Amino acid sequence: MQRLRNQVAQLGVLLLAAFLLTACGTAGKTATPEAAGPQHVAQDPQLRITTAEVMALFDEVFDGQPLIKARTDANNRFLMVDARPLGRYQEGHIPGAIHMPPGEVAANIDKLPRDRKIIFYCGGLHCPLSTQAARIAMEHGLTNVKVYYEGDPAWLAAGNYLISKTPYVYHMVTAKADEANFTLIDTRPTDVHRKSFIPGSLSIPINQWDLKQSLLPRDLETRLIFYCGGYG
């Protein structure tokens, strides 16, 4: 027993020494920006709109109805503006959002209605593009402007989906297998799918969801892209 106690004591001394050496090695060093990670952009309380507030707007305007293009186009309460690069917008954007990065705001200011709330967003709390775009819009006379600082990552995390555009889907379908961790899902009736479908897509008709959802990939990181018969 005494021998075991001695071994434990020696191990404790070694661990303490290792801790002290590590602490001494890092003492006085300042973390680099790279080590600390990207910094959050400064948020203006007067401009900030939260995920809960954005979702509340969607609930008020759409009342839980499917967010098809005709319905989002008819929205006269607010307009979502995606300030990210075009490729990111095509990859996935909040339903109804238009694309307008900071460098295009001034030239397209007339496309931003003055009788609606304009909500700029980009790639989350580290992304400055939405703030830049909002400032330019206000410099050109828009007053009902908000910035959704949390952006599309928070929108997804809250259980919502994004809209993908054809160029992105085409790229994913034609990309090499090891570059594309996604599954394309055709929700149309089975007989319609049999006539024609996007190559590689999985047929899970919406009316057979309970029966066939087990066909979905087990990897929860897999991106699922659903499609049917067009905008309508």
What does this structure look like?
The protein is of the alpha/beta class. It has two domains: 51-157, 3-Layer(aba) Sandwich (Oxidized Rhodanese, domain 1); 166-227, Oxidized Rhodanese, domain 1 (3-Layer(aba) Sandwich), CATH 3.40.250. It has helices at 2-26, 33-36, 51-62, 69-73, 86-91, 102-105, 129-139, 151-157, 166-174, 190-195, 209-212; strands spanning 78-82, 98-99, 117-121, 145-148, 182-186, 202-203, 223-227. The chain is elongated. Residues 1-35 have low confidence and may be disordered.
Tell me, rounded to a whole number, the average pLDDT. 86
Separation, N- and C-terminal Cα atoms: 79 Å
Indicate the low-confidence ranges by residue numbers: 1-35
| Secondary structural class | alpha/beta
Radius of gyration: 25 Å
CATH class of the largest domain reads Alpha Beta
Number of helices: 11
Per CATH, the superfamily of the largest domain is: Rhodanese-like domain
The main β sheet shows up as: 4 strands, parallel
Number of domains: 2
State the strand order across the main sheet: 2-1-3-4
The appropriate CATH architecture of the largest domain is: 3-Layer(aba) Sandwich
